[in-house]
Amino acid sequence: MQNIKDRILFEDNHLIVINKLPKELVQSDITQDLTLADKVKDYLKVTYNKKGNVYLGIPHRLDRPTSGIVIFAKTDKALSRLCNAFRENEVKKKYWAVVDNSPLKPEGTLVHYLTRDSKKNKSFASLVKKKNSKEAKLSYKLLGASKSFYLLEIDLHTGRHHQIRAQLATQNIHIKGDLKYGFPRSNKDGGICLHAREVSFIHPVKKERITLVAQPPKDIVWDFFVNAVKA
After folding, report:
1. Catalytic residues
2. Containing domain of residue 203, as a range?
3. pLDDT of residue 51
């Protein structure tokens, strides 16, 4: 799973889509750690024998501890159109989350107002609108259960900072490994069990619908739920 080539979900002249690992940084931050974007650029440079700097546009991001689908653009045109598609909520995203508690109903919709605290790098969810808050909406479905955990499939209707993590926490539902939002223990890999499972969007140039699915990381808990859903 470490090799970029093995994690490519889709590639053409305009796009490259990668299955991100937990704790992998999408683009550079104050840590200056090697990023997924750096790895993809290196792959493109070597594979296509490109000279000089390689262009790679980033129309969206995933939180560092989250795994799953990340779309990159190879051209300015693709980047501009993808950014607009994300802004207009035209990119449909489904996540899987392994959590500690079952929701009260097997299916439902959560609507909150999120306020972001940049200093704490955390979002707080409220049922009432507050100053500088933004509406956050998601739908969930319970897909399976083990002795200790539950698997939720989540449809994001808005794309807010830490949205899934913050909204689930209001229901006393915590994502495995997510210390920031109330789970008591970290995962060994430092990530959390939140995975960008599926994405569906219109190709920015070819205008065809593309739907992609990414396998979760290899892990005993994820493996249990992947096999349970298949059964």
Report:
1. 63
2. 5-230
3. 87
